[in-house]
Structure formats: C-alpha cells, structure tokens
Amino acid sequence: MFNPAAAIEDSPASWSPAPVDPAQLADALRPFGESRMLPVRAYLDERVLAWEREHLFNGWLALGRTEELARPRQMKAFAAGRGGVLVVRGDDGVLRGFENACRHRGHELLACDGVADNRAIVCPYHAWAYRLDGSLIGAPGFRNAPNFDPADHGLHPVELREWHGWLFANRGAGAAFESHVEGLDTILEHYDGADLVTVETHEYDVAANWKVIVENYQECYHCPSIHPELCRVSPPDSGDNLPPQGDWIGGGMELRDGMATMSLDGRSDGAVMTRLDEVEQRTVMYIAVLPNMLISLHPDYVMTHLLVPITADKTRIRCSWAFPKEVAAREGFDASYAIDFWDITNRQDWSACESVQRGMTTPGYVPGPLAPAEDGVYDFVHYVASRYAGQSA
Amino acid sequence: MFNPAAAIEDSPASWSPAPVDPAQLADALRPFGESRMLPVRAYLDERVLAWEREHLFNGWLALGRTEELARPRQMKAFAAGRGGVLVVRGDDGVLRGFENACRHRGHELLACDGVADNRAIVCPYHAWAYRLDGSLIGAPGFRNAPNFDPADHGLHPVELREWHGWLFANRGAGAAFESHVEGLDTILEHYDGADLVTVETHEYDVAANWKVIVENYQECYHCPSIHPELCRVSPPDSGDNLPPQGDWIGGGMELRDGMATMSLDGRSDGAVMTRLDEVEQRTVMYIAVLPNMLISLHPDYVMTHLLVPITADKTRIRCSWAFPKEVAAREGFDASYAIDFWDITNRQDWSACESVQRGMTTPGYVPGPLAPAEDGVYDFVHYVASRYAGQSA
Amino acid sequence: MFNPAAAIEDSPASWSPAPVDPAQLADALRPFGESRMLPVRAYLDERVLAWEREHLFNGWLALGRTEELARPRQMKAFAAGRGGVLVVRGDDGVLRGFENACRHRGHELLACDGVADNRAIVCPYHAWAYRLDGSLIGAPGFRNAPNFDPADHGLHPVELREWHGWLFANRGAGAAFESHVEGLDTILEHYDGADLVTVETHEYDVAANWKVIVENYQECYHCPSIHPELCRVSPPDSGDNLPPQGDWIGGGMELRDGMATMSLDGRSDGAVMTRLDEVEQRTVMYIAVLPNMLISLHPDYVMTHLLVPITADKTRIRCSWAFPKEVAAREGFDASYAIDFWDITNRQDWSACESVQRGMTTPGYVPGPLAPAEDGVYDFVHYVASRYAGQSA
C-alpha cells in the first residue's frame, strides 16, 4: 500500500550511502593539488540537502551559548535544524536537553529563542506540566483516564554538551563529543570561553547553499578581491590551516604590525584576553566546527556564525559577537568597532556566495580546481565528499 | 511514453486507498481514550494534502453566503479550492453553479469574489457570452466557422445546494447533500439562517495544516491556557459534543450567568434571534461541516470560518460575522463587540496552531494521546483516519 | 547507486521525445479551424517547464541589445534562462559570448546587466583573469602548481549572433541562425535596427505561464474587450499573420486614418523611420521570435518583450522601448507617448493572462477551440505541440 509520507521522509536515508554518484566524486576526493570542487549538483539539488539533513546534520549540532542558563530553573529554546531543542538547567544544576515539542499535540514548549525561569516546563497550549528532568508531572483533565500513565509521556531527551560556553546537541547519530572536537580544546584553552558575554547578534538570509558559505569562510584567497578592510589589518596570505582532526577544520591568520584586532582601523575598544600567549595575541583563528558553526577567535572578542540550511540555495546565518564579561560590563563599552568591521565583511562574503550560487546554475559549469591557498576549502570538500561516498573522514 | 503531467496530477488519486500507511493509522483509529493523533506526516507532507484534495475536498464544499444572489441575473464567483465556482441566479429564480472558467481559453468569467448583475455571463477576455443556464449564446467571429457548434461549449455545471443561507458546491464526488448534513437541520432550525446579513469578513493566512486548525476548533481544553477573554464569558469545560452524523462534528458550550454572548464584556449590541429556545439563548454551538466550514452559532450572531488549504503548512481562513437583517439594518449598529472578541480569539488560536505545526517538525515527535476533553478532536481525527484507511465514516 | 541529483536534472531530458502524452496532443495538432489549445497540463506542470527548458530554451535565445557593446573591450552580462551569458567585444572588434561563470568556483564574471570596459575579464571573487577571447591569462597563486595548465581553464564559449542590433545566444541545440530567423530580415529591413537606442525598460512579474503570454500577444481577438485605448488607434480586426517560417510567428495590424502610431492619442512625439515604405508607415508588426522575444515594430519606435520563465505559473518580462538615435538624441525628447500607451496595455494583458492561468486550474477545464481570428495562436500552439510530439516544426 502506497505510503507517500514515507516516500518523502524516508527516501533521503535510503539514498545511502551516497547522495551523489561516487563516480562524480572521484575528482573531489583526489589529493590536494589535483582535486576539484564538489559536483555542482551538491549545491543545487534539494534532494542532496535532504540527504545532508539526515546524514550530516543528525549528529552534534551547535545550538548557541549557555549564558542565559546560568541558574537552576532557567530554560531556553534553541533552533536546531528541523524543530528546536529546549535546554533546561535543573534544580541539581545539570543542563538537560529535550525536543521542543509537547508530547500531547506537539506545541512548542517555548518559542524559539524564548527564555523562561520556572519550576516546571509548562506547555503554553494545554498546560501539560513537566519536571525539569522532562518527566510529566501531570496533564489537566486526565484524573480518571484509565489508559494514561504520565510515565509514558516524558519529554524526548536530547544529548547535550556544554563546551567553552557553547551548547551542542546530539540529535542521535553523533559519536562521542570528544572525538567530534578532538584537538580543539588546546586551541580554545586560553580564550575566555564560558566567561564570554554575547553583545549582539545579526541574522542574515543568504541565497546560497550552506557549503558555499563554509567554503568561502575557509579561504582568504578571495580577500584581496573583495575585502579591502580586512586586508588592511590582516595579510590575506598569512597563516596556515591545521591538519584535519575530529569534525572541524580551520587555522589562523596574523594581524599586521600595529593592528590590535579585526576592526576598521585595527584598534580595539575592548581588551586582550588575559591568558592568551604572545602568538595568540597576534592571531585570528577561523574554525569551522562542522556542520553548522564557524568560530572566529580574536585576541579581544569571539565571533560565531551558526548556519541553518533553509533550502539548497538559501541559508540562514546568525552571527554573534561575544566579549570577556569584564569588558562587556564596562560603563560605556561600545562593541561597534568589532561589529561594524564584520558586518561589512560578512556582507561582502554573502554577496560573493550568492553570485557563486547563481553562477553554478549556468549550463555546462564544471567543478573548478583549487588554488594552493585553498587547502582549507579542500579539507571541507574532502570531508563532505567522503561522507557522500560513505567513507569515514 | 512518459507523461510527466499525468504523473503529477494523477498520482494522488492512484495512492488510493490510503495516503498514509494503514499500519500507522491503527493508533488513530482505536476507541476514544486509547487513541492517538494522526501520524505526523499527515500534517507535514504535501503529498498527503494532494491526496486530501482529491479525496476529501472533491465532494460538497461550502462556498459562502447567497446574500448577494437574491435577485434573478445576479451572479458571484466563489473561491473553491482549486479554481472557483460561478453561481448565477437565473431568470427562473433558480441558482446554478458553473466552473468559473471560459470554455474558450480558460479566463475566469468573474474575478474571485466578484459580483455582477447581467442578462448573460460574458467572459471579460474575448466576450464569449453564455445564457444564465450556462449554454453558449455565441462567440464573436465564429459566424462562418464550419466546425463550431455552440451546443458543444456550454459552461461546465457544478451541483449546488442552498442551505440556511449558505451555498455548497459538489465538485463531483459528493453523495446526497442530505446525508452530508444529516441531523444538522434540527440544530440550525431556530437560527435566522437565510435571513442573516454578513457584516464583516477577515482573511487570515495561517502557517499551519488545515487539520491543525479544525482540531484546535473542536476542543476548549486549550481555552484556560490561551483564551482568558473567552473563559470570562463561557466556562471552558461546559457543554458536550454531539454524536457524529453525516460529514459534520461539533457541539455546544454554555454562556456564563449574566453573559449574553461571546464578546469582551459578555454584552450584546445586537439582539437575540427571535425563534431560539431557552437553551439556545444560553448556548454557543461550534460545528465543523467537513472539510472546509466551521459554523459558530451565537444567540445573536453567526460566525463562519471557511478554510482553503494552500500548502501542507499553510491555510487561508476567511472569517465572517453575520447578523439578523433587522439588526444589521439598525441605524448606527456596531458589530465590533462580536468582531473584536473573535479577532482576538482567532489570533490566539492561529498562534497556537502555528506553534503546533513547527513543533511537529521536531525529529522524533510521535502522535500524542487525547485528553478526555478532546472528544471533538477524536471525532475529527477518526473521520480523517477512516478516509485515509479507505473505510466509510 | 542512487544519484538524486541526476534524477532531478537529467529526467526532463529523458522524457524525450514528449513532455505531454502525444495522444493528448492530437487535438492541438489538427488543422486550424478544428484544433484545440494545448493540454492544460502544459501550462500548470513544473515538469513540462523543465522539459521546455531543456528542449525549447536550449537553442537560440534573444539576450538584448548590443548598444552598450559598440567599442572594443566593452562587455555586458545578460540574463539567459538559467545562469547568464557574458558578451565581450574583443580588440579585434568581434563579439564573443561565454557562460557567465568563472572556471574556478563559478562566481559570475559580471553581475547580471552589469557592464564593464576592460582589457581583460577579471573574476571579482579571486581575480582569475581571462583574455577577451576567453582564454585564461592566469590565476593568482598558481605559479608553482604542477597540475595546473591555464589552457584547460578558458571560459566556456557560447555561440553568438548580432542581428539588427539584437544579440542572440545559442546554448547548444540551436541550428543555423539563418534558419531560426528565416524570412524575417525582409520584414526588419527598413527599420533602423542596429541604430536604435533603448530609452526605457520596464520589468513585470506576471503570474502566468510563458505560453499564455505569447498566446495573448499573438491575437487581437481580445482587444475589443480589454484594450479600449488600442482599439482607438488600431482596428483590432485589421491585418494578417504571415505564414510560419523559421522559429518565428506573427503579422501586422493597421493604424487607423489620422493615427501616426500606437499612443494614447495616436500622435507621435518621435519621427517616422526614414526608410519605411508607405505600407510600413501605416502598420504595426507583432513578431514572436520563439521562444523568448516579442518584437513590436512601429513606424517611429520598436518595443521588445523578453520573457524569462520562472515557474510554470510565473514569468518575468522585460519590456524595452527603442527609438532612432537621432530622435533619442533630440533635446527634450520625451518617449512617454509610447511608454505610457504600452504600459497601460501591457498591464491589461498581464491581468488577463493571470486570470487565464487561474481559470485553467479549475477541475474539469478542457482545452478550448480557437476562433477564426486566432490563427496566430494556432501557429504558436502548433509550434509547441509539434516539439512536444517530437516532430520538426
């Protein structure tokens, strides 16, 4: 008997192990220097995105910061690809994550980005009430219902990890978090991590595939062409990428002499984080924690981009700027030196990404070669192509 | 030879007899108290909606009111799912319905919601003229055309029924209208029906599946949580649903002592309909005439919602308020006491429905149980699930 | 191994030789006077549009005017269905066309409608530089790359033709341009062609299939109903269509006595083109160069419509008005007499086309017959239906 719903929802998974014909992936999987970009269909085809949702976005995903979850009984709903994740700090101080949908009719327990401070999780639709550990306290009107056991209707748990002030959720297919971020703790060690305070968030809707955005982030080969402001403070050919480890890629770039940070004039209105070593004080690190977070570590602030694929050719990006709490708390502190610089630079990037997306629709477009300066793009392309091909990274 | 058009248009019908795997429907079809909501795919999957268009929206559909069609030669075009229906009152006083598309090139004979008063139906594009019975009078320029017989090009008729002032059209698969509304005449008997005058119509675009909206309408279990205004005038736990009959479901709720009707202060600026009995004067009836009309009978006015599914997660709703004609004709009559109350309440409902729609996209969401107060939802879910499963109601 | 991308992109081609069941096309292919319109699915089904993109829009397409490409080193990017075409005039004076996508990562070489004047074609993203003949000069950072040969990365050429001041590109499947426009040079001979100057362009988004728009253009049977302004200056039943030749259809209509051109009062604020014969001075020619350009030749100006199908029910139209260069250069020359007339008339047409598109969604709509005055529509329908059926025109 035909099951249309199953056809739509299940098919992506049944495309396993490859959303793109492996023969077409051979060029992407060659060694760096001989390889090509991904087959163009990887950027245009909704069915590839459907496969990616099931296979790349079903493990550890970055949700955001824990800043608003410092005290017991605080809770916040985070967007997380399809649907959302409700994160709650229990009376025991432990953070727990749940699918953000009531077990009754599916109403969101808290609106996306919403925060609350409550002794229970109460669905706004019919007042079903859950303990902070997700177990159902009770549902109005079920007093005499013979077939209803609250124990059967606890919230669906989602595995959570708090890491340097960021929250990650595992939607089911993520392996050990330690292997996801293997080797990355060393890099983040001297930054203020959990003590950072987010000062501003911008949301951008970009008409490009999420992978075009990651590829753009992982190279500065384009900087001389489109980022004059960036090139004034950081030499575009500086720095190196780190050898791939875990599920992240990236590396660092240097600040020019006399430049304190990434800003329009190279000056900082904040303060260098106190535990940074001399090299870190002169470096900006650009790390993509795959699939959905880009972390940019500056000497005096940390910028993150969180990506939500909307369609094959549209991505929602939330860019946040965070500062050490002592700096953010200063009277009259003005973060615009960092925000303005990156808002300008972000928009230059999104414009280029959208042009790439349009250009790739041209008939006869074939994947191009990578320049020697695009080793970061290679790392990303290889990561994705390996998964398409069903190999481990 | 491949026929892509046939593939798109015909497939939904060929999914018969079930758009959702019957195994998944077993939980929805259990007796009340043990059953679950519909499989989540029924709310998310465009192919289920395609099936519903062919199998649930292809019989009797409510179009609207006949008020503007009182006199011979008056005509009006009503939206009716795909395309529209032109309703015309002939010189013989009989109402007739036609597909609202010229037999020549398909131009609408009258724009949706348009009214006209004319001796003939004249297509605005090339002036093909039809008699009020739909037969073609003539088409300009065909005088000497050898192969053209006007008798071959009459408008496609649509079966119509006028009922208590509302118009219903049968797009082909509806059984006898009497069985469609079986038992409902008794309920409507004392209301002013055909003598009501529509005073205002609001159009809402709601980002939720049409079934989420019907389910929300059929229970007041959510009222204490989201409708403080409603609870002030009507006890949310009052009343009972009627046993399902025909293709409608629903029941009544009581007004609190001292409250005359559903309004922000419980007062009416209209008048109780004269033929209502004592119980009806203290009751509001909430009836869903499936699949597309919700009728809310108040002592002093009647509100209707007409639903048009746009996509699986979007529904257009037209909400109209009608009053006895003597009331509507009063100098200075102000209907805002009824309109304001329900506009506020409608928006509370749409907000909840949209949250349910979003929440159901959460991975791992499974259909929840129904509360004892959700017997009206059960009746609706059972109606839909039975049709999915190919059973008669 | 499943290849979803291939499924989406390749299927349309594999529907060959027919996007619509030939049995359904029999009515459209009968002789004029007995034939019907295309099967309704041809106007509603995205998969038919996908087929048309591969089979009707893959040969010669009109891009626009060469006016901004008069001198060597001038270049302009034109929209051309999927992606765009970059047109460059070389130092040798020759116009060349290229797919508007860099061979590296696919960024557009020039934004759509963008113009430049440069000794090289430089990609804005990573500064890959190409000679004006499309060959790669070099790519930054590849100096020591062992596997990179610039000769492998020249721009993909697109065949171009300049014709009476318009540019046409062949995306691969076009036969000889001479046969595409066979017989049309005679008609255009006395008009100023390459010497025209475009004065204004309007962009319209129309909620109708591109074929509905062409059909509307090819008959004036609708003029008495919707174009009172047009009928005042040109008798709607005047003129004749020419026998089909090449890939174009159309014919002429007369101006009424005392009317100099198509304008609201029939007067011209321009000047009759000097080489027109007496008949041409009293005629407006309406020619559709299939699939995407409509040329309207007036005694004193030329209007063109370029069509870009967006979806099966949406078309983007760019309408341009061009005048002899001596007229356009006159001090105080005001083209609004021509622009206002056609902007009004265009909007009347788009409104009718949108109503046809909606009306065709009505269940049970069947293709209608053509009136004796719709021989131009017949020519178009026969052209399209023949291609659906896999026959040559």
Which helices and strands, and how do they pair?
The structure is a homotrimer of 393-residue chains.
Chain A: H1 4-14, H2 22-29, H3 41-44, H4 46-55, E1 60-65, E2 74-79, E3 84-89, E4 95-99, E5 115-117, E6 121-122, E7 129-130, E8 136-138, E9 157-163, E10 166-170, H5 177-180, H6 184-188, E11 196-206, H7 210-217, H8 223-226, H9 228-233, E12 248-254, E13 283-289, E14 293-297, E15 302-311, E16 314-324, H10 325-329, H11 336-359, H12 375-388
Helix pairs in contact in A: 2-12, 7-11, 7-12
- Give me the count of strands of chain A: 16
Q: Any idea what the CATH architecture of the largest domain in chain A is?
A: Alpha-Beta Complex
Residue share in helices of chain A?
25-40%
Structural class of chain A comes to alpha+beta
In angstroms, what separates the terminal alpha carbons of chain A? 39 Å
- CATH class term of the largest domain in chain A: Alpha Beta
- Summarize the largest interface: chains and residue counts: A-B, 44 and 46 residues
Radius of gyration of chain A: 22 Å
Helical run tally of chain A: 12
Low-confidence stretches of chain A: 1-18
The CATH H-level homologous superfamily of the largest domain in chain A? Naphthalene 1,2-dioxygenase Alpha Subunit, Chain A, domain 1
- What quaternary form is this? homotrimer
Q: Averaged pLDDT of chain A, please?
A: 92
Quote the beta fraction of chain A: 15-25%
